[in-house]
Write a structure and sequence with these properties.
By secondary structure, this protein is mostly helical. The chain is built from three helices and no strands. The longest helix has 23 residues. The termini are far apart.
């Protein structure tokens, strides 16, 4: 039931967010957090290992967002 509600609510919330911000701003943020959340959920629930590459990749993702939106 929760999955069905989330499946329906996610696009609705995405469209509401796009009413307030530009797609060129919202899409990179969504992709960034999507990648980080998938990694964190894999570590927490699937007991995947934390490697140096994952840590460096996460830092690079946040640095790219910082430099992208610095102006």
């Amino acid at each position: 039931l929760t999955a069905a509600i989330t499946f329906i609510a996610a696009p609705a919330l995405w469209f509401l967010a796009l009413n307030r911000i530009d797609l060129s701003v919202g899409y990179p943020i969504m992709i960034c957090f999507h990648l980080v959340f998938v990694m964190l959920l894999g570590i927490l629930f699937l007991h995947e290992g934390v490697s140096v590459n994952k840590i460096i990749g996460t830092i690079l993702i946040f640095l790219s967002l910082y430099f992208f939106y610095k102006n």
